């Protein structure tokens, strides 16, 4: 295709886009004179339609499927839910999701907060922050592959006198240098789940640090000065001034990371594929639906995940309203 | 199939498949008496990768029976070598190479009929015959003297990817840390470009032998082509793909572009179109009159088992779970219907 027709197409596209906007705005203007409420519907309408198609319908369909058998054919009552809460493999899935959601937000936020306070107004703050923020820029799959190499394990038992074992993983090589025995990080449950959580913390600590650092900087200087004049020490300053001032930001960071952990999929899938008792709900939901062709159980897992996210969202919204003073 | 979206294959495709493929291949594309899917590509899974050069230097012979394979493994251990390297890690599909091992041993220990009944679910995993096959596999892959060459202990099998597990076979680029690696014909693609894969080269494969020399069971796999529409243009493509013309064009194209790696069970496939020695070996094995071919069992079992419990439990088995627990958990996952 030549450039000219492409350009012409583009001009047309822009013209049509402009025309559509003009019609919408024109209609809106027309109705605005007659009453605000109807004009409001013109703006909300398209979003409602898209939400209904893209969110409400799939949610209801999933709920419907979760009470049906593997192929989505006949009704099986609460069988799918029963297997989630009784099958030993599924219970491990639930346990791991709980571990992820409890451990990651607090550790990542604590590290982010500590770092934000330590580098605040320190020399080279920008560089120090960039370093911890960098992992945020890496995709979860990329990060998982990096850490898979970090954790890589070669057991001396596989070597012979002719071919002794060489470590490939950085962490195990360091352990060997220090005189220790290499360790298979991804194999031994339940510790392997914590080694996967480390990856998420590595990524999310940067996010926590950025948000918290910004809100620390937003604390009015007069409060800090007043506290100084009252003679507070470093820890008291944190406890009575800094932390209460940034509390809403801490809550937002905690809940955001908690939701990310409930939905965690990429790390588990890339690093262990859910094997060795590291499976989590989102990955199990995918494997059941698309590999084991059990749509019913997959849908039920999705519903459980949805129900678990609700309280966190509710808490988040409440906190947001409280902090806005409504 | 259960969703009712797949369309029955047109008669011309069925006629082509009758003409160019064995009856067993047609059966794999047939569900409840209706023929849906024509076979396309194929791979031979009953292969053991080894290094002809290393074998020659050490004075080892390619085994012709299962007993000889065992004796060879023991001889290697006596010579101070770790014979086998195994890797079953494949992300979510982790465990599948072990299911191939077990299937190969069911075929060898009990024959093709038991294999078929096992795949159909009438012989359970907890049947003594299947348990025995697991234990026979265990005598190799759970034997700390035999595994895991160049990689680690028995458990390291679970965390080693199937792609990298056998690379130690290659003495030039892989270090020659490993002597034997059971993997399908497609594993040729995992060796670095330029690896000498030939009967006297750095890397080659031999047929995983049967109980006796005349016993010649082969485990394989393949792709099938089916349609979700009966529009004439769709049927025309289906028909073309089921001919010998297409098989030869495809084999020639893959020989020219990627140095081979594509074979088919199509009887019209001309071996002159294959450049890769492994492809030639695979087609020879497929065409051997003694060959009793069986399609990958886990691919035919219900998905909840074949691409679920069988993989997962085999993985738990390699990391220490007993054979009894393993077979019972797989049986429990078999869909009730």
Automatic annotation (TrEMBL), chain A:
Q: Which residues form the ABC transmembrane type-1 domain?
A: 94-318
What Pfam family is a match for this entry? BPD_transp_1
Any keyword Transmembrane?
Answer: yes
Instruction: Provide the coiled-coil residue spans.
Output: none
What residue intervals traverse the membrane? Answer: 12-31, 40-60, 98-118, 130-150, 191-212, 246-265, 297-317
What does the UniProt keyword field contain?
Answer: Cell membrane, Membrane, Transmembrane, Transmembrane helix, Transport
Family annotation (PROSITE patterns): ABC_TM1
The record describes its membrane topology as: Multi-pass membrane protein
Q: Which domain of life is it from?
A: Bacteria
Where, per UniProt, does this protein localize?
Cell membrane
In the record, the note on similarity to other proteins reads: Belongs to the binding-protein-dependent transport system permease family.
The molecule here is called ABC transmembrane type-1 domain-containing protein
The protein's organism comes out as Luteimicrobium album
Q: Give the organism's phylogenetic lineage.
A: Bacteria, Bacillati, Actinomycetota, Actinomycetes, Micrococcales
Automatic annotation (TrEMBL), chain B:
Keyword Transport listed: yes
- The highest taxon in the source lineage is Bacteria
Q: Which InterPro entries match?
A: Bact_solute-bd_prot1 (IPR050490)
**Keywords, A to Z?**
Transport
Q: Which Gene3D superfamilies match?
A: Periplasmic binding protein-like II
Which PANTHER family does UniProt cross-reference here?
A: ARABINOSE-BINDING PROTEIN-RELATED, OSMOPROTECTIVE COMPOUNDS-BINDING PROTEIN GGTB
Family the entry assigns: Belongs to the bacterial solute-binding protein 1 family.
Q: What is this protein called?
A: Uncharacterized protein
Organism ancestry: Bacteria, Bacillati, Actinomycetota, Actinomycetes, Micrococcales
């Amino acid at each position: 295709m030549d450039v000219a027709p492409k350009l012409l197409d583009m001009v047309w596209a822009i013209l049509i886009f402009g025309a559509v906007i003009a019609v919408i705005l024109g209609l809106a203007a027309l109705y605005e004179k007659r009453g605000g409420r109807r004009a409001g519907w013109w703006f909300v309408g398209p979003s409602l339609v898209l939400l209904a198609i893209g969110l409400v319908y799939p949610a209801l369909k999933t709920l419907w499927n979760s009470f049906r058998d593997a192929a989505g054919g006949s009704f099986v009552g609460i069988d799918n839910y029963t297997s989630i809460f009784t099958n030993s493999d599924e219970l491990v899935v639930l346990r791991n999701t709980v571990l992820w959601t409890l451990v990651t937000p607090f550790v990542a936020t604590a590290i982010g907060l500590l770092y934000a306070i330590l580098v605040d107004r320190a020399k080279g703050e920008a560089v120090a922050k960039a370093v911890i923020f960098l992992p945020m820029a890496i995709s979860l799959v990329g990060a998982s592959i990096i850490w898979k190499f970090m954790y890589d394990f070669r057991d001396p038992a596989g070597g012979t006198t002719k071919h002794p074992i060489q470590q490939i993983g950085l962490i195990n090589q360091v352990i060997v240098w220090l005189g220790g025995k290499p360790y298979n990080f991804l194999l031994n449950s339940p510790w392997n789940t914590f080694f996967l959580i480390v990856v998420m913390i590595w990524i999310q600590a940067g996010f926590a640090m950025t948000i918290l650092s910004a809100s620390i900087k937003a604390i009015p200087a007069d409060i800090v000065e007043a506290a100084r004049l009252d003679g507070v020490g470093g820890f008291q300053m944190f406890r009575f001034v800094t932390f209460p001032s940034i509390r809403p930001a801490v809550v937002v960071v905690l809940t955001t990371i908690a939701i990310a952990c409930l939905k965690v999929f990429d790390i588990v899938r890339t690093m262990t594929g859910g094997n060795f008792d590291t499976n989590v709900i989102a990955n199990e939901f995918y494997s059941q639906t698309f590999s084991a062709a059990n749509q019913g159980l997959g849908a039920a897992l999705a519903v459980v995940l949805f129900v678990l996210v609700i309280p966190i969202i509710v808490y988040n919204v409440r906190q947001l309203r409280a902090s806005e003073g409504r | 199939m259960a969703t009712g979206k797949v369309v029955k294959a047109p008669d011309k495709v069925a006629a082509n498949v009758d003409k160019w493929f064995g009856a067993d291949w047609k059966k794999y594309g047939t569900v409840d008496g209706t023929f849906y899917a024509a076979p396309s590509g194929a791979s031979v899974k009953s292969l053991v990768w080894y290094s002809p050069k290393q074998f020659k230097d050490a004075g080892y012979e390619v085994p012709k029976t299962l007993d000889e394979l065992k004796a060879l493994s023991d001889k290697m251990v006596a010579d101070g070598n770790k014979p086998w390297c195994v890797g079953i890690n494949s992300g979510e599909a982790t465990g599948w190479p072990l299911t191939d091992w077990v299937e190969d041993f069911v075929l060898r220990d009990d024959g093709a009929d038991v294999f078929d009944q096992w795949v159909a679910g009438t012989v359970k995993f907890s049947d003594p015959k299947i348990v025995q096959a697991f234990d026979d596999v265990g005598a190799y892959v759970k034997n700390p003297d035999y595994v895991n060459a160049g990689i680690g202990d028995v458990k390291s099998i679970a965390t080693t990817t199937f792609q990298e597990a056998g690379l130690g076979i290659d003495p030039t680029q892989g270090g020659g840390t490993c002597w034997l690696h059971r993997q399908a014909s497609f594993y040729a693609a995992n060796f670095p470009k330029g690896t000498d894969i030939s009967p006297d080269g750095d890397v080659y494969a031999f047929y995983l032998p049967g109980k006796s020399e005349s016993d010649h069971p082969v485990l394989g796999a393949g792709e099938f082509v089916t349609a979700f529409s009966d529009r004439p243009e769709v049927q025309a493509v289906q028909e073309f793909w089921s001919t010998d013309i297409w098989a030869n064009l495809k084999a020639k194209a893959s020989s020219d572009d990627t140095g081979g790696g594509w074979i088919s069970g199509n009887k019209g496939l001309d071996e002159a179109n294959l450049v890769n020695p492994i492809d030639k070996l695979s087609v020879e094995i497929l065409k051997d009159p003694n060959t009793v071919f069986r399609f990958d069992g886990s691919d035919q079992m219900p998905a909840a088992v074949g691409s679920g419990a069988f993989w997962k439990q085999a993985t738990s088995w390699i990391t220490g779970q007993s054979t009894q627990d393993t077979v019972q958990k797989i049986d429990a996952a078999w869909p009730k219907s």
